[in-house]
Amino acid sequence: MPSFPITDKTEITRLAKRGVYDREAIYAILDEALVCTLAYCRDGQPFQIPTGFCRWEDTLYLHGSVGSFYLREITQKNLPISLGVTLMDGLVLARSAFHHSVNYRSVVMFGTARAVTDEKEAYAALEIFTHKMCPGRWADVRKPTPGEWKATMVVAVAIAEASAKVRTGPPKDDAEDYDLDVWAGVQPLQTTKGAPLPDPDLKPGVALPAYLR
Amino acid sequence: MPSFPITDKTEITRLAKRGVYDREAIYAILDEALVCTLAYCRDGQPFQIPTGFCRWEDTLYLHGSVGSFYLREITQKNLPISLGVTLMDGLVLARSAFHHSVNYRSVVMFGTARAVTDEKEAYAALEIFTHKMCPGRWADVRKPTPGEWKATMVVAVAIAEASAKVRTGPPKDDAEDYDLDVWAGVQPLQTTKGAPLPDPDLKPGVALPAYLR
């Protein structure tokens, strides 16, 4: 897959060596992240909303209520938006306070949002979204009714301008500090899924599905 | 502590019952989050940057290089900014696709950023920041030199306008769906710190400190 072009908006200028423009690397970060931040402007005032999302090929999909003020605003006014995700991988504990850091993988992208009016595209987006959050779930659940579809807005954002910033590995201290008697290394951070908790109102006899075990 | 006033910018209008304006609840979310997203506008174009932060009383502190374009821009031009954090607590698996959700705690706040010029305030901010990321670490490490201080920019944001949005608990399905043979419940999500990995260049004989065990 071709890398993303480096633009005025996506060029990583601070610690440029951490900049990543490779499409597969950027998509891997987007596919792992469960939540993104959508930012937009109204009269110079920035707003941001955290929301779930999924990716299909070169498009991100969001969804919400048709009453969602921000989804209506960004699609109807065709506002420039920014979407970002951040995965925290570790605390980087250097010998000096100054060189402390974190290991992370973040993506920031820019574009505009389009309301999805094609039913097949909207259905596919929600199926992919559900699969991302919980593989196997979609086949198991009651599918949306016509009334639920009417209440749901699906929004697509073409991934045109994007870049990632990534730090990995141990701390980097000044040469003279490596002889200090200070422990240095990385404390890993991980987001984990725990054992499923049944709904107190779960119908008796309904077993935990295999995809959640 | 007094709650935050509900303003045009901070009022939770979608699923208003999830809105939280209680100051202690908002501060607890801010204190748990390791990263925030800072959003600002330039000529109607939104930008966002993930960054570490800490809170002291009614102020958030960020820091970065004095060469950081965005920190210079937001402080020198006194731009309106938005800061947000999101903690993901669980996947809410309902009987119907429509009622799937997530348990989360998010905060969005609005303000402007001030460059911290008082050395004591800047020093305290970095000490609090380090303590947040790794309690006990500050006492152990080599402190910043005058040259490192010159290269560091500390920025303060007064927490004036803020609100949180919180979902907890099991799924809420339509009454007629509770009889479906579909498992329902919550899959918890958790961010955990793993066992520290020593720097390959760690000086022999330096033990893992007690605060990391």
Protein architecture, described:
Two copies of one chain form a homodimer. Chain A is of the alpha+beta class and 213 residues long. Chain A has one domain (16-173, 205-212): Electron Transport, Fmn-binding Protein, Chain A (Pnp Oxidase, Chain A, Roll). Chain A is 18% helix and 37% strand. Chain A has helices spanning 23-32, 69-76, 119-133, 146-150, and strands at residues 19-20, 36-42, 45-51, 54-56, 59-65, 81-93, 101-111, 113-115, 152-158, 161-167, 185-193, 197-198. In chain A, strands 1, 2, 3, 6, 7, 10 and 11 form a seven-stranded antiparallel sheet that branches. In chain A, β2 and β3 (45-51) form a beta hairpin. The radius of gyration of chain A is 21 Å and the shape is globular. The mean pLDDT of chain A is 96. Chains A and B meet through β2, β3, β6, β7 and α3 of A and β2, β3, β6, β7 and α3 of B.
Q: Key terms for this structure?
A:
alpha+beta; homodimer; Pnp Oxidase, Chain A; 4 helices
Q: In a nutshell, what does this entry contain?
A:
The structure is a homodimer of 213-residue chains. By secondary structure, chain A is α+β, with helices and mostly antiparallel strands. In chain A, 18% of the residues lie in helices and 37% in strands.
What is the gyration radius of chain A calculated from CA atoms? 21 Å
Approximately how much beta-strand content do the residues of chain A carry? 35-45%
- How much helix is in the residues of chain A? 10-25%
- Would you report the number of β strands of chain A? 12
The total count of helices of chain A amounts to: 4
* Tally of separate domains of chain A: 1
Assembly state of the chains shown: homodimer
CATH class of chain A: Mainly Beta
Give the biggest sheet of chain A: 7 strands, antiparallel
Question: What name does CATH use for the topology of chain A?
Answer: Pnp Oxidase, Chain A
Shape of chain A: globular
Helix-strand string of chain A? EHEEEEHEEEHHEEEE
